[in-house]
Structures are given as C-alpha cells and as structure tokens.
Amino acid sequence: MRILCVAEKNDAAKNIAAQLSNGSARNEAGPSKYNRLYKFYSMFEGHQADFVMTSVSGHMQNYEFPIQYKSWSSTPPDALFDAPLVKNVTKDMVKVKQNLEQQSRTHSVLIIWTDCDREGENIGAEVRDVCLRANRNLRVLRARFSEITQTAVRRAMANLVPLNVLIAEAVDARQELDLRIGASFTRLQSLFLQNRFPTLVDRLVSFGSCQFPTLGFVVERWRAIAEFQPEKFWKIEVHHNRGGMNTIFTWSCVRLFSERAAAAIFEEIEESGRAKVTHLESKPKSKWRPFPLETVELEKKARMLGLTAKDIMKIAEKLYTTGFISYPRTETNIFPKSLDLKPMVEAQQRDPRFGAFATEILQNGIDPRNGRKTDEAHPPIHPLKEGSGLVGAEAKVYEFIARRFLACLSRDAQGFETTCKLEIAEEEFSAKGLLISDRGYLEVYPYDKWSDKTLPQYQFNEEFTITNAEFIESTTTAPLLLSEPDLIGLMDKILKTHSRKTIRTVSLGIGLVSAYEDLSIPLANHLLRSGLERDLVKIENGEKQRDAVVRAQVNAYREAYKKAEENLNRFGAVIAQSMGVARQNDRPFELPRNPADDAVARCPRCQSPMVVKTIPNGSVCVSCTGYPECRTSGFLPNGGRMIARLRACNCSAGFYVVRWSFEPGSVPSHMTGEYEGCLGCDETLKEVIRISIREGDAARNNRRGGGPPPGPGPGRGGGNQRGKKRKSDHDSGPGGSGGAAVNCGCNKPAKKLTTRKDGPNKDRDFYVCSDFPKVCNYFQWADEVQPGSGGADGSRNPPKKTNNPRNNPGPSSSAAAAGNVQCECGKNALSLTVRKDGPNQGRPFFKCPDSGFIRKYSGSILKAICSFKI
DNA sequence: GCAAGGTC
C-alpha cells in the first residue's frame, strides 16, 4: 500500500513525517524547490505501508477574470460583478502542482494534512482536485489535528475523516466575492479619480472588502482626533502625611469644567483644612488569573513583547510547525475536558525559569480558569514541550505562551484593599491601599501588574488636619485610542505600499470614506463585512448555499456600485474637498462601455471583442480589448471599418486576416474597396494597408465602376484586380528593374533588387520597399512584377517573415484560365466554383484544398492569398 | 494595473 500525505507547507510536512516515522523519514527533492518529499514506512489500517509526505505552499490556485475582461479601458467595471471567473494555478505553483500529480500516479491513498482551519480545508480541496485529476482511483482522506505532536498526529492518523466540502466552499465564496468587489470598485475609483485629479494619473486607488471597512474605522478615529476641541478643567487633590507616608486623596467629583466653581470649593477646603474619616473599609480583593490564550489575545500582547501582531503570529506559526505549541489560530478560551493538561505541565517542570511553579501547580492540582468561547475546532494555545533551548523572538513568544498557560492553571492573586473616604468642607475625597497576601499566578506571569500600595492607619470618624490641598488645572486630551504609529502603520497598510503606483495620501483615504458616506453608501461600515462572515458560517453549517450567498452579496455591492457611478460628480467633489484641491480638470469622464456594443470582431487569439478607436493623430486603430495580455491590434486608414474576420493566419504572432471595407463618403471614393488584411502587429498591418491603397487604382476603379461604390458593394472586384490592371501609375522612384520604376504597394519606391542566395527560391530576384525593414517589409518577386506597373500591387505579397514553402511559385493570374492553379502551399487549388450569392454572385473562384473558405477569385493571383495559410 | 488568503 502506498500512501501520499500532503501538508499545507513544507515545515509541517517535515514535522508530521518526523512524528509518524519516529524521526526516520528520508528527505528527498522533488520538482518544487521548497516542497520536499519525506519518505518512510508506517502503519495504515493495520498494515505496513509506504508513505510519502509532501506539501504545497498555501493555495495553488487563484480566481481570475478571463482575458476579455482584463482590459480596464474596454470593460465596464460593473461587468465584473457577473463576469465568468476562472481558477488558475498561479505561476509560482506550477511545480508544486506537478509534484502532486507525479506522486498521485504512484499512490492509492491520499491523506490531506493541511492546517485544520477554513483556508486549510480549501487548500485541501485544491490538493484533492489536482491529485484526483492525475489519478482518479485515489482514496481521499483528511487528517484532523491541532498540534504536531506524536500523540496528536497518531490520533489524527487513526481517525481519518472525509474532507469538509462545505468549509471549502465557504472559502471559495469569499474568494469570488473579494475579487469581484475589489476589482469592480478599484477600477471605478481608479479610472474616475485618475481622470479628475492630475496627481492621481497612473495611480491605483484600490478597494478591498476587508481593507475599506478598516480604512473607515481609522478615518473615524482620525476625525475624532482632528475635530477634538481640548477643554480646560480643574480638580482638587488633598495630601496627607502620616508616619512618613504621603497619601493622595482624590476628589469624588473628579473634576469641574468651571474654574470659578472649582476655585470656590478649593478655597473652602484650604480654609477649613480639617478632614473627617467618613468611611473605612478593608475587604479581600483578588486579581483573577487570565483566561486560556486565544489568537486575538496573543496578537494584543504583541506590542508588550515588542512585536507587531503580524510578527507574533508568524513566530507562533513557526512554533506550531516545530511542535512547541498547539495550533495558534483559535477562538477558544476553554480547555476541553478531554484534553489532558498534566503532561504539558510536567514538560514545563524542566524549564529553569518556571519549572518550580509548574511543580507547584501539579502539587496543588490543575485548575484552569475558563472563558466561554469555543470555536469547536482548536483548544486554546498552549505549549506542548519544553522550550528552554529556543532563542530570540521565538524564545520570547514561547515564554509568554508557557507562562500564560501556567498562569491560567494556577490560582488568582489575593490581597486586601482598604478604602478610606474623607469629608472636607462637605466635599468627599478618597484613597485606596492594597496589601497583597498571595501573589498567586503573578509569580509566573510578570506581564500583569498589581502592586502593593500601602495606606497608613486611619480610624473611622477620626479627624485630622490635611497637609495641603492642590488646585490643578488640566485639559482634556484627544481620544487617541490608536497610537500615532499605529494609525500611520494601519493607514500605510490599508493604502497598500506594495506598488509604486499606489497612493499613500491620508487625505485621499479620508476623502474616499467621506465620499461614500456622503452618498449614504455603507461600504466603510464593518457590518457589511461581518454580514459576509456570518454568511460564510452558514455555508459551513449547510444553512445556505454557496451560490446563493455569492449572488446576494454581489447584488448588495452592485447596488452600492450603481449609486456611486450615478453620482460620480458629487463623489469627486467630496474627495476634492478632502484633498484640498480645487478640481483641476473638468475633462468629461466616461466609463468604459460594454465591448460587445462596440465590437467589430472577435480577437482570434483570445476571443475578446475588438473595437475601433480613433487615436489622437487621427489614425483609426482596431485593437483587442484583451489588452495588455493580448496585444493584437492594428491601424486602419481613415474611416476604415472592419466588417468581418475571415480566418487566422499562421504567422508566429498568431495574426489574423480580416476583410474590411471603407465607409462610403467617409473617405475618398478611390479608397473604396475590399481586401483582406492581417491585423497582427502594427508593422504587418501597415504593410497590408499600404499595398491596398493606391490612387491610381482608385481612379481606375471609379472609371470602371462608374462612381463610388456603396461600401461592401459592387466596387469590390476592382480591389482584387487592381494589381493586374495597374499599368500607368505615375509613381516613379529610384531602383526598379529593367528601367521601369517599381513601386511598393505602400506607394513608395521599391528598391532593386537582391537575389535570393539560398532556399527554395534560390537565384530569384526580388524588390523590397525603400522603407524596408522598418515600416514596410513587403517585398515582391521581380519576375511577378507587371512590366511598367507600380510593382508590388494590390496582390497580397507575402510578408517577408512568412516561412511558407515556395517550392512552386505557381502560375500567376494567367494560370487561372488554364485551370491548373496551384496554391502557394504547393497543393493544387480546387477549381472552380461559382459564387452563388452575395455581391460576388456569378464570379468563379478557386479554393485551396486546405481551406474551407474562398481563397481568391479566379481573376486574381491565388498565390498571394495563400501566404496566409491556415 | 483590480482582493484577500495561504505561503518561501
């Protein structure tokens, strides 16, 4: 039996393998650098089995929009709410996936050992899918564990369960929503604000469904601080010296905001100077030991240890995978009854720092203080083995976790609190003292402070003269609930620092929050995100369907989006105000339209809609909306309109051929015509177009056709024939063969002339355009140039780079009549069919046997068309 | 060029 185990990360794989194999696992390299293979023998279902333990590195796949939605300029952002999504293996994970596929093929059982949390379940589902695709007979099982110790791992092994599909689906729903919401709002915000504010050109104004509510929270604090008006207040303190001890009695009234009133009372107190003890009470007081440790609490303690919340979790994660502590992501603060805490306390006995305390706990009996929360998945964070060998920050975090663990198992600290109240001039003052009788858990938990504060002996009803009274003026201070470094750190994190193009202006953050508030769009409200979290739990419980949750959430955010889009001007004004800039431009803003509305064709490479745009220099450009992934585009001469895509050509860039025409009236009539052109890279397209537009042709066309033909109409034939019939072009230029000036199709002089040195066309002469190779890289075989003609005519000379075999240059147009026309690809053309309908009705044409469509009408050169082979 | 969540 061969068993494949997959953990969430290499570290975990290594340690789980070590536990299952008693340290005997062999470590081998696999296709993925970071994900090693650990091989060992162990028992499975009562039999000795071969084990391979390997890992992934978190998620392998990521949701993405299909290529046709990737262009910001031709996808309306709200289309992303409904756009299809694809889940792709990310680039970094290709080898990780390969590793799983390879292993799956030689194993019959898959055990998933990803972390036992939400994301872990989803990662487990990814692992399962990849492995099952490679080997559909795999038996898939899931190991459940909260810690990587011998017992836990073996217990998990003995109690394998199925993967929890519902949890995986909940994560999937979150992923989908995060992407849809993030992408649509990010595009709307970025495009609009870039248009409005010159300082934001090229900047990304990102929006995240988690990030934005946090921004809202920060902005709220920020405002409270900004709007805070300090207020003066006055208070009175009474001091009394007794037995060398100075005791400060504080005013029960605490403070007054009226100086006159406070001063009047102070005067009376100073004048009287006599105090009477009106209340004297001494009662036992205890300081409770802490609750068992949960994640949030651990994060809160980070600062105390000089770490950030992120750092402390990273370290805890490491301590977990190395088996020092239990799983650090838990919302539980109750130790389950089934968990035997004794061995863990015993392990701490060996630690010189708190070994004695651990021993004391064992003697007194383990008595955990329990909270009320449980996530029913993981116990509170606790140490698993002794960790006195650790160093650095790991040691610090481990020590905290161990001390916390021992603290919550020990006993509360005990003491006596004495309260003494005085009356002076009818005002009440009080002081408190503390006498600690048993430090209890504080012995092992120095992170809590509870200090003795002694109070001298006073008697009830006793009267004495106060030493002095102080009149203190003070001011209220801003509600700095978040410290300044916190605030800046948070802002920085929110307005993402990872990209140079990202804005980091606090005023923009405030502006965004204010703008949505102004439109009553509750995006900055945490309730929106917590509503999603609740829905995710419902998916996990089976109370709600994944798709229903996604639909409902998408609809809610779509409403918010619509409202913002409909009120963009107001939205911009609020942000302008916050940023302190008068709006610097009033350029009209238009959101991208649905490409389907404007598309003239589908991109043959990526199937995105292709749209026609006029660029500032007046050129008309047909470009793929799949930009920038797909860069298929090309320029049409003024007014050109693509009317149909015929087929893809076979050039290396995957260019394709279009049939297009000119709008009658929108261009000079001589341009009317129809031809096929490759809309691949710019150069190739330009060549195509130049070949086709010739004034001489046009003039002849017009004479023949008797006036400008109406677009895709009767004028077409002319286009096809222009090469042959062109005899008297006025073009002249250098070069030329045999004295006659030869022009390239782009109307520039063609250069004579090079002889092919090798290949199938060895010894044949050809012309190239004088622009060659920069702009126009068409060329023309010399023996095909019509005497005295403009040279490279409308015939579609093959681009130089095509590698079509030219073994048989084939007969030119005259061969058509012979009925033995050869396609350039060397095959005999099928001859001859007559067009049954359409504008070319009645015309005979040839087809290449390789192609299913019309190659060329019989009156023109077949060969050139075939340079665009299928 | 979009998010957030894993992880190296």
TrEMBL record:
Domain of life where this protein originates: Eukaryota
Region described as Disordered: 694-741, 787-815
Enzyme Commission number(s): 5.6.2.1
Pfam families, per the entry: Topoisom_bac, Toprim, Zn_ribbon_GRF
Known catalytic reactions: ATP-independent breakage of single-stranded DNA, followed by passage and rejoining
Domain GRF-type, first and last residues per copy: 744-785, 823-870
Residue ranges annotated for the Toprim domain, each copy included: 2-146
Residue ranges annotated for the Topo IA-type catalytic domain, each copy included: 164-593
Keywords of the record: DNA-binding, Isomerase, Metal-binding, Topoisomerase, Zinc, Zinc-finger
Bias (Low complexity) ranges: 796-815
Purpose of the protein: Introduces a single-strand break via transesterification at a target site in duplex DNA. Releases the supercoiling and torsional tension of DNA introduced during the DNA replication and transcription by transiently cleaving and rejoining one strand of the DNA duplex. The scissile phosphodiester is attacked by the catalytic tyrosine of the enzyme, resulting in the formation of a DNA-(5'-phosphotyrosyl)-enzyme intermediate and the expulsion of a 3'-OH DNA strand.
Family: Belongs to the type IA topoisomerase family.
Protein name: DNA topoisomerase
Provenance organism: Oikopleura dioica
Native organism taxonomy: Eukaryota, Metazoa, Chordata, Tunicata, Appendicularia
